[in-house]
Amino acid sequence: MSSRAPETDPLVALQGGDPLPFEAFVRSWSSTLVAYFIHQGSPASRAEDLTQDVFLRLYKSAMRYRPRERFTAYCFRTARNVWIDDCRRSAARGERLGESSDPAETPGHHPDPSAPLVFREEERSLQALLDELPIGQRRVFELVLLAELDYGEIGAMLSIPVGTVKSRMFHAVRKLRLAWARRAQEGVARA
Amino acid sequence: MSPGNGPHRPEPPELPADLEPLLLEAALGEGVPRASARRRLESDLRGLRELRALEARLAKVQGELAAAPGWDPAREPALVERILAETTRALPPLDARPWWLSFGAAAVLAGSGALALWLAGHGGATEPGARSTAKLDTALLDLDTARHATDAGPEGFAAAREESETTASDGACVAGPVDADARLEVRLLEARAKGLREQRWAPWVREVSPSELGSLALALWCEVQLDRYALSGERPPAWKHVVEILHVTLDRPETPRESSKLLAHALDRSRDYGLTGEVTVARLDTPGPLWTGEWFDDLAAAGREAGVAESGLWRTWVDQGRR
Q1: CA–CA dist B301, B287 (Å, integer)
Q2: What's the pLDDT tens digit per position in B124-161?
Q3: Is A145 exposed, middle or buried (0-12, 13-18, 19+ CB in 10 A)?
Q4: CB-CB: which of B70, B75, B285 is closest to A105?
Q5: Which of A157-161, B9-13, B161-165, B170-174 has the lowest mean pLDDT?
Q6: A173–B54: do the CB atoms touch at under 8 Å?
Q7: Using a CB-CB distance cutoff of 8 angstroms, which residues of chain B are in contact with residue A175?
Q8: Smallest Cβ distance to A64: which of B21, B70, B231?
Q9: Contact at CB, B20 and A55, closer than 8 angstroms
Q10: Is this structure's pTM higher than 0.90?
């Protein structure tokens, strides 16, 4: 997998008065962060708000920021904190995670009838496969593939040892491979 | 190739029946182990096929994950514009000091003066009456200063700070330097105020042994250490040991119930910063305000338990901090 990590640390550039790397980072990672929040269970409109919140927090923290890790890892750790804070606020308001009054905002719901049927089938298929994974394995799997973080960064982010990250990833991939093989066989049998 | 013709390259060992660990290392690992796993898999037809299939599948999943279900990618430009309008294109420049920190620092400034006065009056030190009255007046002035800072935001804080420094230079401000022989709680409160206000951290704080502190002093000492970590990124030394002390102190039956809340607050902050638990994480963004009204509520309750709340000045200070 090719890494999309920025060459220049956007917050270090901001400290030096150059906003361009930060703006480039916003452009290239905003949709990924929206996807991250949706995969955590947020409705699409809320995911947009949370994404905006992440970038605001990053921007505001620029002056006290010290680069001690890869910037994308710092960004996703901030995203996770934003998500946790949002869950706490939702819990305080008595809302349930991922619950939306508008069914059109429910993850996996596609109001656009012109969307290609095959794409939607595949999307649902992936969602169903991910839903079968235990939550810990799923989080690790998503962070590896979506955020492109390495095992050490994920361990630091989730406060778990690197060995546990590897183990969760191992079991997640094994289960997914088995599921893919099973589906492929079912497809052949149907044909 | 027969032996003796060219350099001998050992055959890679036969692939294991379970390819999973090798496949994972080859597809997602790093460095030498990844290269080694790839070499082993690519030397075998079955291994090569499985590796290619897994990589193709993972790339597909990566694309599917990035396409957020339920979100229209056409909204992305508007989202980006909104974010840029709130950040780099916003008119106010970056401010290293959040608004609540300004309030917190001013409140601590006021608080340290008030507490110093109360402890001086009730802690056994003999103070001439006239001087005590002057301190009371100055402490109340500090409270007004804090209120002014709260109303006016960061700029107000700067003004308040200037005003406090001017007052201190007149030699009458109790929020000024605390005597070295003052009670530890007062010195810690002053250290916290100074840290929040100027981001200068008194070196003696690190020399204090937390295992020898009472519950109130321990809570204040932890707050100073956690402020320092949140603002400067400097990890508190031997924090695991400190966390153990916090737990032990909390478990002690003689620890006042209300003081326990202050200790629990320190533990919560520690947890929020990723300093507590199996793995320590260098987390630099703060999840919430360093100083909140609830802290003053807990302090007020602890004060009542300790009999401090009988002081009118204490009550004034706590009430001011809660706002």
Answers
A1: 25
A2: 333 333 333 333 334 333 433 433 333 333 333 333 33
A3: buried
A4: B70
A5: B170-174
A6: yes
A7: none
A8: B231
A9: no
A10: no
